[in-house]
Amino acid sequence: MSDFTSNFWSLYVAAITIAGVVGCGLLLWLTSRKKIESAADNTTGHVWDEDLTEMNNPMPRWWMWLFVLTLVFGAGYLIAYPGLGTYKGQLGWTQLDEYRAEVNKAQTELEPIYARFASMKTEELAGDPAAMAIGDRLFMNNCAQCHGSDARGSKGFPNLTDSDWLHGGTADNIHQTIKDGRVGVMPPMAAAVGSSEDVRNVAHYVLSLSGSPHDSLKASLGKSKFMACAACHGMDGKGNTALGAPNLTDDIWLHGWGEAAIVNIINNGKTNEMPAQKDKLTDAQINVLTAYVWGLSNKAAAAR
Fold it and tell me: How many domains does the chain have?
């Protein structure tokens, strides 16, 4: 109900709910008072399939009282709990409080499991089978939706198993990324580069940096125009982890490869977001998850 912009909808929902409960009670009262004339043999006179006769027996008392108890329970529930528009109920119960209570309970129960990992460094955790088993579950539950179950990512979602890191691949960098999240912004650069032909030339120059197939003439013309991009990607195109600017020389393409893909990004820009996990995971869980992700691209070091 919090997304409603006026009290009308709150009152509308409350009125419909109350009308439903009152209506059921009124229906029960009216039907209990209505008498159906019956024949001498206690039938209503309705016959189906030649010999199926409708009897005129009253509804069992226990059935009627069960209906009454249901109405009483419904009224009591609506008084105690939310159900009438924006009315919060006498008990003040909310789904958010219930969720937080369950999360706190789970974290309390899990504390002993994570206690022995608290004093271990990232490299040590990455080589601990028990810690990595937990890290794998944390990754599957919180990261695999974007980066894939094998952590190799997909278009728009980084591969976590290689050595290419937008914001740095050290344990501290990874920990900060998981905890606080990241927002990467590539602004539209067409106006700064020049004409549409200049944009295509820059695209070919970018392709040349990684040795990808390109038009050498267009690349040579685009080199000077690349100055507009050098502020973030560097004069050599090797990127800047402080800004999250990708390395353009390693032939790893996060948002697609080729002239068309690069021209599209130069013209329209791109925004990527890695959501912060600090409100979902505890510090201990983030430490274990950091070690797991770090170990994906440092398997030899983790094994040692």
Answer: 3
